[in-house]
Amino acid sequence: MPSMKAIKRRRLTVKNISQITKAMNLVATSKLQRARANKTAIGIPVQATFDIVYNTVKDEAAKEQPFVKPREVKTTAYVLITSNRGLCGGYNSNACKALAAHAKESGDSLIVPIGTKGRDYFKRRKANVLDVPPPQETPSFAEAKAVADRLTAMYEAGEVDEVYLVYTQFFTVLSLEPIVRKVLPLDPDYLRKVVGADLKDGEAWQDLGFFKKPEPKPSAGVQDIEFDSGLENVLRSVIPWYLSMFLYAAMASAALCEQAARMTSMDSATKNAGEIIEKLTLMFNRQRQSIITQEITEIVSGANALQ
Amino acid sequence: MAENKLELRVVAPTMATDKSPYKINAKIDMAILRCTTGDMGILAGHIPVSMVLDIGILRIFDGDSESRVAVLGGIAHVSEDIITVLSDAALVPEEIDVKAIGAELGELLQRVEQGADEGEKQEMQRRIVSCRVLLEVKNA
Question: What integer is the mean pLDDT of A124-135?
Fold first, then answer.
């Protein structure tokens, strides 16, 4: 049995930790509201981008374009979105594990980490990791654009043949799911389901978690699309936009998930700390009581011996 | 004046807030967009078209009034009488700070004169055009 002093010291330590976890929970709650507002704000721009991209690639001629036509896969790039800080439960490791499981089935992989936790995870495992500056806590379009431009150039140069995006999708505060989504080459049929256009019977809308379910869009009577500067040029401008917006939306979703995960884990840490404090208090009181009982017994036996 | 109206949706992701995701969302008669291939006027009933936008002025006509927005590049799509403009930045005259833009333009011109490498020059030239467009929109 530890001494009373040791129990007291431990109880104080746990109390201090619980104060920190409680404060972190409150901070995460407040940041969660901001992250939610940010994610909601970019929903419409993301939807508009996907609509334009779909309208551009649904053209028959687009199927032969470099960003649409699939090619033999030698190297797969994985853009991994994690946080820069820990203390958020399994948020980072779940995304890393989802990527690792997916990469096992593909050939050579190149990890493009957005967030230091994911970068460190794969560097420790000696994976091929691209050097990307760590992002700020609040996702910015400029950061997403920088990575997207780099990926577009690498795809064009044939350094990568496929691009996947690994991020955490937000369903509810308690339900966060790591997702692996293919972003390049573009799949017009997949995009059709994302934008909810011409859905056939039994076909479901593909929810990316970025925007609300769009109104059904029938294609009847819709004319072919013209491209002012030619399909290739339009596609060349549209692709960096599409990648930037996809990344930006995934970063916003991941930022929201990070705060939700931190909030939940800090809440359970505070609860656990409370339970430990209760146990230690009980232990401390028992110890104190036993010392008092012992002292009384000693006094009584001493008095008895004097009689 | 056109008989039917068009819907103009200008979306700038860096400027979107949860209260107003669209930078501009209005019913208009006509819009003239600055594309990489030249200016393009859009009226109601226009065929679906996708465009690459250059740095320039988006002119919006509604009734007898004309308003101008500085659009610093992007893409646009017209379909079913809806013009969607996606841009890095779209600024209305009230948002343009003439002093700051003037100072930036002065500094850029000075740096170009002093000489810079080709890559830098191109980027500076792009920024100079942006500054001029912003000033033109503000002073219109």
Answer: 86
CATH topology of domain A28-263: Pyruvate Kinase; Chain: A, domain 1 (3.40.1380)
Tokens 């404090």 correspond to A277
Q: Residue ranges of the domains in chain A?
A: 28-263
Residues of chain A in contact with residue B13, where contact means CB-CB under 8 angstroms, are 42, 45-46, 141, 245, 248
pTM check: above 0.90: no
Over the stretch B6-47, which tens digit does the pLDDT of each residue have?
999 988 877 666 666 778 888 999 999 999 889 999 999 888
Minimum mean pLDDT range among A28-37, A189-198, B42-51, B98-107 = A189-198
Q: Would you call A52 and B37 a contact, using CB atoms and an 8 Å cutoff? A: no
Structure-token pair, residue A137: 């806590």
* Per-residue three-class SS string for chain B: CCCCCEEEEEECHHHCCCCCCCCEEEEECEEEEEECCEEEEEECCCCCEEEEEEEEEEEEEECCEEEEEEEEEEEEEEECCEEEEEECCEECHHHCCHHHHHHHHHHHHHHHHHCCCHHHHHHHHHHHHHHHHHHHHHHC
Name the strands in the sheet holding A175-184, side by side, starting at the edge strand that comes first in the sequence.
A108-114, A75-81, A162-172, A175-184
With an 8 Å Cβ cutoff, are B47 and A223 in contact? yes
Contact residues, chain B, for A234 at CB < 8 Å: 50-52, 75
A61 contact B CB<8A: no
